[in-house]
Specification:
This protein is an alpha/beta fold. Helices cover 33% and strands 21% of the residues. It contains 5 helices and 7 strands, in the order ββαββαβαβαβα. Strands 1-3-4-2-5-6-7 form a 7-stranded mixed sheet, sandwiched between helices. It binds guanosine-5'-diphosphate. InterPro entries: G_ENGB_dom (IPR030393), GTP-bd (IPR006073), GTP-bd_ribosome_bio_YsxC (IPR019987), P-loop_NTPase (IPR027417).
Length: 193
């Protein structure tokens, strides 16, 4: 099962931001976490979202319309990329915050976390921020194919404990499509809730 997605708008600055009149599910995560790969995997396409081997390339908010389900999947800029300037990082942070705060159509935030990497303060900051907005958080542990069974279970337990108020984390791999159906179901439930 795939999700039909169509890129509708891209916003690079706060002035360009728009708040469509439909439910929105935001996708957040550190640069290189596998966000573009996940969008392409959900859509069953290869090049809908850019995949870069150079982290920190996606600097815009991209609005993907799911025309059949009537909601937007909103791709936020990857955060936590150390090699770009502080000013640039702050600019993206502000853009993310501007979009998330007071957004009455925000139905949930999917937080992508690399299943191999230990929890980072930037991830926890974002999770707490989403919590403070009283928006539902859906953690997705990416690149699950790179872990063995024991590592996967450890990652699952660790994140479940840290994000106890969130949805149970979903193990996901864009390579094997592990977790794809569970993720699609969880997203649709958020949209309908
Ligand atoms: P983004 O910066 O968050 O959009 O991350 P990308 O989707 O561009 O992925 C970053 C790198 O991780 C690329 O080299 C991808 O091929 C790789 N990658 C992403 N998802 C997976 C996955 O599920 N399994 C594996 N093995 N590699 C992945």
């Amino acid at each position: 099962m795939y999700l039909t997605l169509r890129l509708e708008t891209t916003s690079y600055t706060k002035d360009q931001l728009r708040f469509p009149d439909l439910p929105q599910i935001a996708l957040a995560g550190r640069s290189n976490v596998g966000k573009s790969s996940l969008i392409n995997s959900l859509a069953g396409q290869k090049k809908l979202a850019r995949i870069s081997s150079t982290p920190g390339k996606t600097r815009s908010i991209n609005f993907f319309l799911a025309p059949q389900e009537n909601f937007y999947l909103v791709d936020l800029p990857g955060y936590g990329y150390a090699r770009c300037s502080r000013v640039e990082r702050e600019k993206w942070g502000e853009l993310i915050q501007e979009y998330l705060q007071d957004n009455h159509h925000l139905a949930g935030v999917v937080l992508l976390l690399d299943s191999r990497i230990s929890p980072q303060s930037s991830d926890l900051d974002l999770a707490h921020y989403v919590d403070s907005l009283q928006t539902r958080l859906l953690p997705v542990l990416t690149k699950a194919d790179k872990c063995n069974q024991k590592q996967r279970q450890l990652a699952l337990k660790r994140w479940q404990k840290l994000l106890e108020r969130a949805h149970k984390p979903i193990l996901f791999s864009a390579r094997t499509r592990q977790g794809q159906q569970a993720l699609l179901e969880a997203i649709k439930n958020l949209v309908q809730a």
